[in-house]
Design brief:
There is one protein chain. With about 550 residues, the chain is α/β, with parallel strands linked by helices. The protein has 16 helices and 19 strands. The two termini are about 65 Å apart.
């Protein structure tokens, strides 16, 4: 907020009440000061309290010796009614104990001895008014700061630019009580101001939004705004207003329309405008000071929201780039494998069908990685049933390799919400990896069950001889640039596809070994409710 300028107070704006049971004293006081101050008089404490309840009073003077109620007691009652009123005791009795007690207790500001000197009394009254005015200004400023702090916190909680504007408009119109409010922002080329928000939402707002404020039609308005100057657009200076600005004032039918700049870090980014279209009071310095503070906080909140929006966009772009990079790495491995596969097909026509099917499955899996899953393909998948399907598909290959392939399915294994083809491709690739590397006469098991301590997490395992699943070998095969021969390329690509599918499904892929049984396990954990996953290797 900008510092509040010093203000010269008109003493007549601050009424003075003088209470004395002697009417002659009241007449002298009124005749002496009525030209300089706004004077009220009362001949008794009861009349004084009645006048205080009926009129706003800044300073209260009271004679001490009055029938029915002393001046000290009367001023104590005044404090109960209006604590801000400055209280002065006028007395001819120099009772130091009474006066000292009254002053120390805060019941009176000071005392004046009778008979009083007009010049001394004039100085006392002016100082009392200054004290009252300063107290009121301090209270107003504290109230404004409290309100501004609350509105600032509210603005800074919003993380979307449009919500910041809505909150700013609402604060100006509803919480600060201005009849109308609007937010305008410069366009990219700064040749026009665009209406971002207008309140209240009525026919007037729709007509105001159609007014075009451009640098060409309102150059003086634009120049003052970019210089950071607040502008008061008043019907009193109708002829001086530029065309669209005059149209604006006419549409809202306001005596005053105040436009406050929204100061950005390097330049003004727009304006906050408020008006008194309902015929309310004219705007003063206090209103402009409050609007200065509100506009500054609004710009900070708006810039923060824009930064958050930009970061969100950058993060989404980075995730897309990372996704495409993964697909690119898989595609590179696929291209190399397909080249070797063509040579293999030419040399081994009888095996062409099986190899082509596997390549087709891998291409399909990579395609799924490059795009979002079709919502219509997602359903409840029973991991045990998928394991049985994979075992059936690979039964012939296991038989030719002399390996016993069997399934151990736990009926308590939770069902997954996923595309069946994705789960099938993961298991197919992992089992193929183990089958190709398992020694003849060995066993390979496909297990499904519930993860320990996690009732909603499914565990899929492919278990084989330790020689078939070496953790270091798995890490090497996951690198598309580290393989050399065609067989390694195909195995590495299969593992990479499985790993990426598991990651897309929000799960984890682990490689572990068991020295006691001389076995190794490729273990997949998938939650029914997806969460972020990764590859972990444990020994």
């Amino acid at each position: 907020m900008r510092p509040r300028p010093l203000r010269l107070h008109d003493p007549r704006e601050f009424p003075i009440l003088y209470v004395d049971d002697e009417i002659e004293n009241l007449r002298i006081f009124e005749l002496t000061f009525r030209r300089e101050f706004s004077v009220l008089t009362a001949q008794s404490a009861e009349d004084g309290l009645r006048a205080l309840n009926e009129n706003p009073v800044a300073v209260v003077l009271s004679d001490h010796k009055m029938p029915g109620m002393t001046g000290v007691d009367f001023l104590a009652r005044v404090r109960e009614i209006d604590e801000q009123a400055i209280r002065i005791l006028v007395t001819a009795y120099g009772d130091a104990e009474i006066l000292g007690s009254a002053i120390n207790d805060g019941r009176i500001y000071r005392y004046v001895a009778k008979p009083w000197n007009p010049d001394d009394m004039r100085i006392t009254l002016r100082r009392a008014i200054e004290r009252y005015a300063l107290d009121r200004e301090r209270e107003t400023l504290l109230s404004e700061l409290t309100l501004l702090n609350r509105l600032s916190r509210s603005l800074h909680r919003e993380l979307r630019p449009e919500r910041v504007v809505e909150r700013l408009i609402g604060a100006a119109h509803r919480e600060l009580g201005f009849d109308g409010a609007a937010v305008l922002l410069f366009g990219a080329d700064r040749s026009r101001l665009h209406w971002i928000g207008v309140a209240p939402h009525d026919d007037v707002a729709e007509r105001v939004r159609r007014i075009e404020l451009s640098r060409g039609t309102a150059p003086r308005f634009f120049e003052a705004l970019e210089d950071g100057a607040a502008q008061t657009l008043s019907v009193d200076h109708w002829e001086e207003l530029e065309g669209p600005v005059r149209e604006w004032v006419a549409e809202v039918s306001a005596d005053d329309l105040v436009v406050v700049p929204l100061p950005g870090e390097h330049e003004v980014i727009g304006a906050l405008a408020i008006d008194n279209r309902s015929g309310g009071r004219r705007f003063g310095a206090d209103d402009r000071t409050l609007l200065d503070g509100l506009s500054t906080q609004a710009v900070i909140a708006l810039e923060n929201a824009r930064t958050v929006a930009a970061l969100r966009g950058s993060r989404a772009l980075a995730e897309r780039v990372d996704r495409l990079g993964t697909v690119g790495a898989l595609a590179l491995g696929l291209v190399r494998e397909m080249g070797d596969a063509v040579a293999e097909l030419r040399a081994a026509v009888p095996q062409a069908a099986g190899l082509a099917d596997r390549l087709g499955g891998m291409v399909g899996a990579i395609a799924e990685l490059g795009a979002q899953a079709d919502e219509s393909s997602i359903c409840e998948v029973a991991p045990g049933a998928i394991a049985e399907e994979v075992a059936t598909l690979l039964a012939g290959e296991a038989r030719r390799a002399g390996i016993a392939l069997h399934v151990e399915a736990d009926a308590q294994c939770p069902k997954l919400l996923a595309a069946p083809g994705q789960i099938r491709q993961v298991l197919l690739n992992l089992v193929m990896h183990v089958l190709r590397r398992a020694p003849t006469g060995g066993d390979v098991a496909i297990r499904s069950g519930t993860d320990a301590g996690e009732a909603r997490v499914a565990r899929l395992e492919v278990v084989g001889a330790r020689a078939a699943v070496d953790p270091d070998d798995v890490e090497r095969l996951l690198d598309p640039f580290a393989t050399s021969d065609a067989t390694s390329l195909e195995e590495g690509l299969g593992l990479r596809v499985a790993h990426e599918l598991v990651r897309e499904l929000g799960g984890t892929l682990e490689v572990s070994t068991d020295d006691a049984s001389d076995t190794a396990t490729l273990r997949v954990r998938l939650a029914r409710d997806r969460s972020a996953g990764s590859l972990r290797t444990t020994g």
